[in-house]
Design goal:
This is DUF3987 domain-containing protein. The chain is globular. It is α/β, with parallel strands linked by helices and 476 residues long.
Amino acid sequence: MSTFKEMQYGPLGKAVEAAMPHSEADPIGVYAATLSLWSAAVAGKVFQPSGRPTLFWSALVGRSRVGRKGFALGTARAILDPSIGGFLNTRMRKGISSGPSLVTTLFEVEQESLTSEDGRDGRVMIAEGEWASVLKRANRDATYHDQLINAWDGEAVVNTTKGKGGKREEQRIDVPLLGYHVHIQPGRWAPLVKPEFALGGAFNRIPHFLVSQSKSLPSNVKKPLDAVKETPALTKAYRWAREKVREMELSPEAAKMHDAYRLEFDDRCAALPENVSCFIERGDENLLRIACLLTAAERKTMIPVRAWKAAHAMIEYSMACTEKLINEAQSGTGRQMKSVEQIIRESLQRFGGEATRTLILRSLGTRGNADSLTAAIEKMPDVVMETRQGAAKGGPRPVYVRFTDAKREGEDERQEEPEERPKLAVVPAQRERPAPRKRAVGTGPKRPAAKKVPAKKAALVRQKEETPKNPMADLL
């Protein structure tokens, strides 16, 4: 995994480094939170080369107390308060867990700004210290995740409400300016991050970062974050960004590196199981957003290679954290995630060493498609894919996947020779044992007959036995 030093760049990176002696949080967690707050502050003014927003969302994943997630957010605020404190003090929100409430919050903030001196300003920063509680409620809402996706993409979000007299009124924000930063524990992540929402893209827009405590500060330091000083470069950069719209641009070298990365990233996503790739599919765009934010903090619009590399290190770290979370979640439930290569080999062994491509794709299910199957087989030295002659002349030619000959021969050598079938032999029938003879009546020794007791005497004996003994009977 990348380290903080590789991610650190420009005034933002220096500000985080300067604050760390006064914080117990993970420096990467502080960096992620700082970028999220900074992106919300410059939202609506700084844009990607494509014109899309530069909002950067983040999730800190760490155990309670050990992760120091709250300390990370507190450190980020201490860094940025001198520069963007006015924005943070008035636009921070939390506890929003439904699509309608999210749209209403954005709509109300934007409407209130219309009467201000600076005009329309719909910027909102959501910071959830207990994301698990929000997800519990949000997972029951039909629109929450969809509205988040639209906001991240810069698309309009809409909500319809009932106004006075039951008249339907529309709340519409054409350009949502939403910052998003959340905290959650690893043990609560797996049960609440639902696969159906993940497959829809709800979570690949939120890079995850595993965090842990960096150190313990002395107890006699009561308010350590009060020692964090203003970063003048960030104050100047904020004023520069808010003056007018800034359209960022990749330098020629950075553009070449980003294009190459996108091709490699597409291949990686195609080769991964869908239940993993759905969490990282926006990695290339999140990389570009980070690079734009780091460069804007320098008051520049041309993204240099160094800024791109720092953003690359950060997003790669995040994707590694996400894969680790998925693996731990699946191993905890007794299900180990299988790669496409493993599924292909198991399928071939089940079908006797070869099978049609259609059968292999059925085995992959939602974990792969024809492209990912082809890409995986190209990396497997023991498996080949070939096209054969069809049954009908001029008909479709079936595509088969099979083990290479060397592989199959090796397997044949390892197989044990089948045992020879035992020879059949004629076994003579056993003679039937003669049934035991019945003893004739009157034969054999006779038992002595029991002596007969007179009936009258027998009745007296029974009466005496049945009558209970009375110890006082002799005195009567």
